[in-house]
Amino acid sequence: MLLVSTAIVIVLVGTAIGESRFDSLDDDQKAMLKMLHDTCIDESGADEALIQKAMKGDFAEDDKLKGAMDESGVPDMDTMVSMLPESMQERGGKMIGVCKSITGSSAPDTAMKLNQCFYKADPEYFFII
């Protein structure tokens, strides 16, 4: 499974590609993000409606939503930042830096808590792939 957090930067990519935070992305970047999103949905079975709610800060305690995040539980934050488009690295990097020490009781729980932290750090800029 893909780490939604990784994508978020990787940790960061929304399904609402038309939103202003994605205006600086070129068509290839938007297509890549959509492909990552679709793959995560297919592999996890996560409900699209729950993902949309999470993008607004309403994180459901749903195993499939948590399952949309990688089981390793130890995301590589530096890689996340480096995979962001250049136009998103500074702001996305700040979000990631604030949440580097977040851990949960399991890999999916860690991924969920990271996304909750990312949202709290910058709700206007937060998105899920």
Automatic annotation (TrEMBL):
The keyword S-adenosyl-L-methionine does not apply. Residues 1-18 form the signal peptide. Keywords: Signal. GO terms for molecular function: odorant binding. It comes from the Eukaryota. This is Uncharacterized protein. It comes from Zootermopsis nevadensis (Dampwood termite). Coiled coil: none annotated. The keyword Nucleotide-binding does not apply.
